[in-house]
Design brief:
- The protein is of the alpha+beta class.
- 50% of the residues lie in helices and 19% in strands.
- The protein contains ten helices and 14 strands.
- It has helices at residues 4-10, 16-23, 27-50, 106-119, 129-132, 141-160, 164-210, 216-290, 358-361, 418-432, and strands spanning 55-65, 70-73, 78-83, 90-91, 96-100, 291-293, 298-302, 311-312, 317-323, 329-335, 348-353, 364-371, 381-386, 405-414.
- Strands 1-10-13-12-11-14 form a six-stranded antiparallel barrel. It has a four-stranded antiparallel β-sheet with strand order 2-9-7-4, with no helix packed on it.
- It is elongated.
- The protein starts with a helix and ends with a helix.
Amino acid sequence: METKKDILDTIQLHSEGVQDILTQPPHWMVRWGNTTILLILLLILLMSCLIKYPEFVPSTVIISSRNPPEKLEARINTKVEEIFVADHQAVSRGQVLMVLQSTADYRDVIRLRSIVDSLGNKGLVYFPLSEVAGFKLGEIQGDYNAFAKALTDEQLYARLQPYSPDYAAANKSLAESRNRIHTLQQQKSLEETKYELSKREFDRYQELFKEKVVSAAELSQERMKFLQAGQNLESINITISQLQEGILSIEKTRSGATINAEKDKINLSSQTGQLFEQLRKSLNAWEQNYLLTSSVAGVVGFQQFIGKNQFVKTGDILLSVMPDDKDILIGGLRVPATNSGKVKEGQKVLLKLDNYPYQEFGMVEGRVKNIANAPDKDGNYYVNIILPNGLQTSFHKTLPFDKELKGNAEVVTQDLRLIERFFYQLRRLLRYE
């Protein structure tokens, strides 16, 4: 049996030209083949110089306005009592959007808030106690009752003036004492005149007695008149002195009554003011728990299906308000600690939004504005970015902004080309070796 080698040896080529081509390839094939391979290598080198292959730091992004949307959440486990707005309705600042169920009548609480805000601390005297007495205030009732009692005591004190009788009696006693002193001063003047006359008469009798014109009995009689006149004058002086001391005591009593009256007035007013502030704090706490109010003007949106009498839990986000002022858009990145040191201010950021797929709409470009100094509890760094071109994408489409936009972000830390990337890896390899 013939082997394969014997068979191949017996094969004869049918053409001498074929044998020439196989034994000696033509020069043009070698020349153009090498040229083609060189051109392909040059094209690859050129493309590697043109094609960019930057280094990225991946992250997540949330795009919002400078004033981010306000998210209103339930502060307590309860039911929805009233809903005053519809989805995507324009709302104004301070507008009540929703009321949660409580033990109070929300209409009475809102009316009480209006009264409190309209009066202030200086207008408490005009507080309509009779009107508010019928309000159903629930958990605010205790603080309101304490305030109402303090205000009633202050108003009664102002109307009854309990220290007025003491003050009036003191004034009357002062007037009477001063009148008596005036009368005694007149009597004193008369007594002084009598005293002077008695003194001169007594002196004259002494001279006459020395000349033995009058007897000793007559001189003694005149002496008695003179001493009596002195005694009467001294008695009037003592009475006047006693009345003056009485006036000082009465004035002290009147001053004490005035001080006590003013002190009680200040204490009552201070107590009323403190309880009024406590009532205001209770109103604020109730509003925070049961009222959902917009703090900005904008458009409201429901975060979930909500109906009357629906039970909500603490922490549930019920509504959000997109502010009207949304001209300036900003983005927030959560960059992981890995490679976060490469992120610098001014670097380009490529944003791929979940709301608008980048394959269809393109990517949005941003710039790093600043970086947080410390990581959050999850070890991520917050990076704030700006959008120089707004929401204009790489496909020259401008995206509408009517809600917060979420997506992925890539921070371009090194804008390398493909050839630089190759030499960069080669350099790292050589340094490692």
